[in-house]
Amino acid sequence: MPAVRGDGIRGLAVFISDIRNCKSKEAEIKRINKELANIRSKFKGDKTLDGYQKKKYVCKLLFIFLLGHDIDFGHMEAVNLLSSNKYSEKQIGYLFISVLLDENNDLMRLIIQSVKNDLCARNPIHVNLALQCIANIGSREMAETFANEIPKLLVNGDTLDVVKQSAALCLLRLIRANQDVAPAGEWTTRIIHLLNDPHMGVVTAAVSLIDALAKRSPEEYKGCVSLAVSRLSRIVTSSYTDLQDYTYYFVPAPWLSIKLLRLLQNYPPPEDPGVKGRLNECLDTLLNRAQEPPKSKKVQHSNAKNAVLFEAISLIIHMDRLGAAVEPSLLVRACNQLGTFLQHRETNLRYLALESLCLLATSEFSHEAVKRHQETVVSALKSERDVSVRQRAVDLLYAMCDKTNSEDIVSEMLSYLETADYSIREEMVLKVAILAEKYASDYSWYVDVILNLIRIAGDYVSEEVWYRVVQIVINRDDVQGYAAKTVFEALQAPACHENMVKVAGYILGEFGNLIAGDSRSGPMVQFRLLHSKYHLCSLPTRCLLLTTYVKFINLFPEIKHEIQAVLRQDSNMRCADNELQQRAVEYLALSQVASQDVLATVLEEMPPFAERESSILAILKRKKPNMTEGIQASAKENIKAAQDILPAAPPPKASDTASGMVDLLGLGDEVIPESARPVKDESQEEQHTVSLGTTNEEGLHKLTLKNQGVLFESDILQIGIKAEFRQSLGRMSVFYGNKSPVRLNGFVAALASADLEGIQVMASQVDQAVEAGAQVEQTINIEAVGFEIEKPQLSVQFSYCGVPQKFQIQLPVFLHKFLEGTMMNAEAFFMRWKNLTQPSQEEQRIFKSTQAMTEESLKLSGFGFGVLQGVDPNPDNLVGAGILHTKQGQVGLLLRLEPNRNAGMYRLTVRASRDGVAKMIVDALEPHF
Predict the structure, then answer these.
(1) Residue 345 marked in a binding site
(2) Beta-carbon contacts of residue 51 (< 8 Å; ≥ 6 apart)
(3) Which residue, 170, 494, 552, 681, is the most exposed by fewest CB within 10 angstroms?
């Protein structure tokens, strides 16, 4: 404690020296206990202690506490020191209180009174000590007590600059510790105008405060943008001699410049042409300075200059990602400047350059400029010593990849993968697999890449990767023969990874006949080659190979006996694993009992898979959400490739028996009572007719917020829906359940009209007979092509007991079904909210509700909105955001529901980036409140 020694407290210096000279822990404790006993006796027995002595003993207690020992006395003496007029005594009192007392201490009221007295003092040193104490404790009571006092000090023209600095930082600390404490109203404008203060220290502290306030209330503090640009311009255009006291190694006010650039990233680019032009000039000047020869060889000079440069580039990227009209030259020049850092000797600079280039690669203006550094990035990937920098190089290669360079980048990444660090191999495998699929013009190249991937890094290839290659091969006739030949050759390698065996087993089981004409890959050769790997594989892989063997029986009847011999082996028939044993027994029985025609039917070639979203991309997003979202957000090509098509709808739950059928479709709607079910009366079967309803309004209303449920129901028929929507595509499975005790003949379900407004719909054929107690399924594919969607009509007809029945129902296809929820923070939400102010972009309704609206009762997620927690300053308000996808394009949507508890009224506001869309969404929302 050098400051205390300077005050001449000799007793404290001796005590510290004694502690340091102790030879053991026991000796130290003994000396401390002796000192504590002496201090306690002095505080209790000596009534004549002066300020100096109290200060000395309180210092000793503080030192003992910092050594890790508990202090349970001396607090009152420390509080008494606060009333002293001597700086050293008051300082020690505040120091003791700040370190040892918590906000729940009984002495806090006395402390608050002393702090109040010091805040009103004329001595600025005492005011500063009080402000530091408030900031150190930062309790709610402190915040509530001084919430109005500190802003007064901050904006008062008579307050000294050093006190203003402390007041700004103290207020910042209270705001961070207590979310509901923030100056508002009259203080807002006056705090913003601190950016014009002539004292640079005050401005630096004020920028930190305004940045925190702007993040919480961006609309309230948006006036800071023009003043921040003005202040930044003055710093950038000044020389280091103009700001000599705030120049750091020839860089004018670097910390303030960085804070101003970060403050501007809370807002979109200024709308005023003059302010915007001034900001562009500042950014242009900062980029120019980066190319100037250094004014000093000291590392501090380059660190300060580069710190400002990187923050300026971050602001340029921020402006571009908001869709603002950024000067393309700024993006390109920023990219070129970052390129010069890729071979810099400083590891941190290389890392930051790669990270920023990843973001620049997503801009249409700078993407080509980033691609020019491909060779340098590849070289960094191979020669860089720091694994975190290599990781960023992989990210950048992934971000800069497009159709023109995909093969080169994939080849380089595969080459590096053989020697890559284990910590990044799994992610590299995912990225190579995604790029190969995304940019494959020739799918034989895709097959080669994935098989090389398995060969090089088989342990890091997840099941999703080999699932995906199987799906693609099965769906593409032109590549099946090549894939079968390639996996057959891969199996011949002495060391063959198990994932390769899985792929080979699946593909040869389906398409081995395509290469069986060559004697070198004949049926027996394929079988023996696969079976040579059998005993080296895990149980799940053996189960897959058994399926391949039984497929071979269908493809190659001439090797049937060889395969049956394998199935009969004790290691299979009596295996401890239930799955493997069951397959061996059942496959053997099937091959022995079934005729060739039955085998051909049961073991026919797999039908094409329903195209679906790449599960590989989903894994990568989970691993690196920020990076992948940033890369995918601006590059349209990458966005489109991220979602292939929809997965098939899950199969329905079949009921066990017709007599016990309550809900044929297993959709969980209301149970039909026994009395309502039709009973077969053979004597009157010909006269038995049941009137069918012709409307499904109730079911349609229920399915507005759900994607599965009963759409229509009568005594004869139950129609259920299971649907899935992703972006502009939808797939709906319609299940027709026969509730009657007789068969429904001549069953036809078709679209009433194929020419619909704003939507394209295709329906599959359905079985013409529906047995009693059975159900049939129909698949309907949907694509939204516009924003005004007409609901499709489904025409259903059949014959029941010889009486023809016909009716039409509407399918639950609404505009909001194509709305995908998105998450954002408060800053992004309110920035977008205030940009959507045109009358045609907003729809507002006020309604009354008998019960309080909550997130659950509103079911925002059922409408597709992502529910944003903790975004609105008013916790009673509900906030949501989403993106509406159609073939015409994407539309961003924002929602706010503001309650008036006293009147029982609610105001619903929806804003959309496309004219008229907000009204359509509100029209759909309103009936459900």
Answers:
(1) no
(2) 81, 84, 86, 89
(3) 494
CATH code of residue 742: 2.60.40.1230
Give CA angle at 130 (125, 133), nearest 5°: 125
Residue from 374, 351, 371 nearest 363 by CA: 371
Is 10 a known ligand-binding residue?
yes
Beta-bridge partner residues of 809: 794
Q: Is 431 annotated as a binding residue?
A: no
801 and 821 in a single domain? The answer is: no
389 falls within a domain: no
Residue 686, token pair as written in the block: 């010909």
Assess contact for 720 and 708: CB atoms under 8 A.
yes
The answer on 763 and 903 residing in a single domain is: no
Number of Cβ atoms within 10 Å of the Cβ of 375? 10
DSSP assignment letter at 720: E
> 389-424: per-residue pLDDT in tens?
998 999 999 999 988 899 999 999 999 988 888 888
Contacts of 815 by beta carbon, 8 Å cutoff, 6+ apart: 784, 787, 788, 789, 884, 917, 920, 921, 924
pLDDT digits (tens, 9 = 90+) for 740-789: 888 888 888 888 876 778 788 888 888 888 888 888 888 888 888 887 77
Claim to verify: residue 892 and residue 750 sit in the same structural domain: no
**How much is the average pLDDT of 150-169?**
89
Burial annotation 346-371 (CB, 10 A radius, 16+ → b, else e): eeebbbbbbbbbbbbbbbebbbebbb
Residue numbers of the domain that contains 524: 401-602
Cα 31-36-41 angle, rounded to 5 deg? 130
Q: For residue 643, what pLDDT band results from cuts at 50, 70 and 90?
A: very low
The one-letter amino acid code at 141 reads: E
52 is in an annotated binding site: yes
58 assigned to a ligand binding site? yes
Say whether 60 counts as a known binding-site residue. Answer: yes
Do 729 and 753 lie in one domain? The reply is yes
Total domain count for the chain? 3
Cα–Cα distance for residue pair 127/139, rounded to 1 Å: 18
Strand duo 878-886 + 889-900: pairing: antiparallel
Same domain, residue pair 419 and 469 = yes
Does the annotation place 668 within a ligand binding site?
Answer: no
Does any domain span residue 324?
Answer: no
Q: Which residues of 712-732 are buried (b: 16+ CB within 10 A; e: fewer)?
A: bbbbbbbbbbbbbbbbbbbbb
Of 758, 788, 813, the residue at which a domain comes to its end is 813
Q: How far is CA 240 from the centre of its chain?
A: 43
Q: How far apart are CA 130 and CA 125, in angstroms?
A: 9
In a domain, 359, yes or no: no
398 in a labelled binding site: no
Q: Is 170 annotated as a binding residue?
A: no
Both 427 and 538 in one domain: the answer is: yes
Based on the domain organization, do 801 and 866 belong to the same domain? Answer: no
How far apart (Å, rounded) are the C-alpha atoms in residues 737 and 658? Answer: 11
Three-state DSSP at 242 gives coil
Report the distance separating Cα 79 and Cα 111, nearest Å. Answer: 7
Check which CATH number belongs to the domain holding 864 and give it: 3.30.310.10
Q: Could you tell me if residue 476 is inside a domain?
A: yes
- Tell me which of 602, 627, 654 is where a domain ends: 602
Tally the C-alpha atoms within 13 A of residue 913's C-alpha that lie toward its C-beta: 15
